[in-house]
Amino acid sequence: MEPEIAPLTDADVETVAALARAIWHAHYPGIISVAQIEYMLAQRYDPAVIRAELAQADVWWFVLRLDGAIVAYMALQKARDAALKIDKLYVHPAAQRCGCGGRLIARAEALARREGCSELELAVNRGNAKAIAAYRKHGFTVREAVVKDIGGGFVMDDYVMVKKV
After folding, report:
1. Do 159 and 144 form a contact (C-beta atoms < 8 A)?
2. Do the Cβ atoms of 115 and 78 come closer than 8 Å?
3. Which residues pair with 63 in a beta bridge?
4. Where are the alpha helices (DSSP H) in 6-115?
5. Scanning 16, 25, 107, 151, which has the fewest C-beta atoms within 10 Å of its C-beta?
């Protein structure tokens, strides 16, 4: 069956929150601490946080389904006049390397063009070699390195990557 990308609905918020927890705990240990994983999950994936984002006009959430099951998600937001930010893009490990991420990036590019943006941007942890390689494969380049205090004694040590659309 062909993957299906659709806007996230309220009915699927808890499913996405649970998927985020599974993906983060499978992927991030060794890159960031479990304490930071839990802190960031609470900040970004509490169902109330996701629902508040869904209510914003300049934030878009999408899910990707394979055989009816949500296996990936993406959240986008206007960053600057000319840029659309991929704030979140995650694919369950069992669905990686099947084109899901590329399909979500293509959807982000289409939305960027529709919104009059000439560039996609994202932040990716500098230690996340697998994701950096995937983004490079899809035409992103590193614009800068940034360290951002996110509270709780934690920082995000990221590359900001960009792609012209």
Report:
1. yes
2. yes
3. 6, 73
4. 13-27, 34-45, 47-54, 100-114
5. 151
The structure tokens listed for 133 are 């390689």
Give the Cα separation of 1 and 86 in Å (integer). 26
What is the Cα–Cα distance from 125 to 159, expressed in whole angstroms? 6
The amino acid sitting at 72 is A
- Between strands 83-91 and 119-125, the pairing is parallel
Query: What would the two tokens of residue 119 be?
Result: 């560039």
Separation CA 99–CA 88 (nearest Å): 17
Give the N- to C-terminal CA distance of the chain in Å, as an integer: 29
State pLDDT tens for residues 63-118.
999 999 999 999 999 987 799 999 999 999 888 888 899 999 999 999 999 999 99
Backbone phi, then psi, for 12, in 5-degree steps? -105, 5
- Helices 47-54 and 34-45: crossing angle in degrees, nearest 10, is 40
- For the chain, what's the residue count? 165
pTM above 0.85, yes or no: yes
